[in-house]
TrEMBL record:
Species this chain originates from: Meiothermus luteus
Keywords noted in UniProt: Membrane, Transmembrane, Transmembrane helix
Keyword Transmembrane helix recorded: yes
Protein name (database record): Uncharacterized protein
Superkingdom in the source lineage: Bacteria
Membrane-spanning residues: 12-32, 65-83, 89-108
Amino acid sequence: MRGSGAALWLELLGGLLVVLGAFLAALSYFLATQTVDPSLERNLLRVRIDLAGLLDILAHRTATAGAWTAGVGAVLFFGAGYLAALARWAVALAALFAVGVWLWLVLFK
């Protein structure tokens, strides 16, 4: 089960999502530690843009997206074999259902 092609692709996708989550976490750290030029902030406040608040919101949302991305990637990476087996069972059950409906239509209609 571990060496199947589907599990390998799911592991690859999971690893890429973990790396993307790490990049998003680094971006959120960069946004959170960004220093704001006082004259720029004063000029932006004239048009009602709170730059410090905007950077804080962006850092929070980016950190949340990075955590979710890394978490989904870890589930895909470590559970790829189980997810591939679950997908095989789902396809098998769908095929059995389709054959059952076909038999019901042929025999009883």
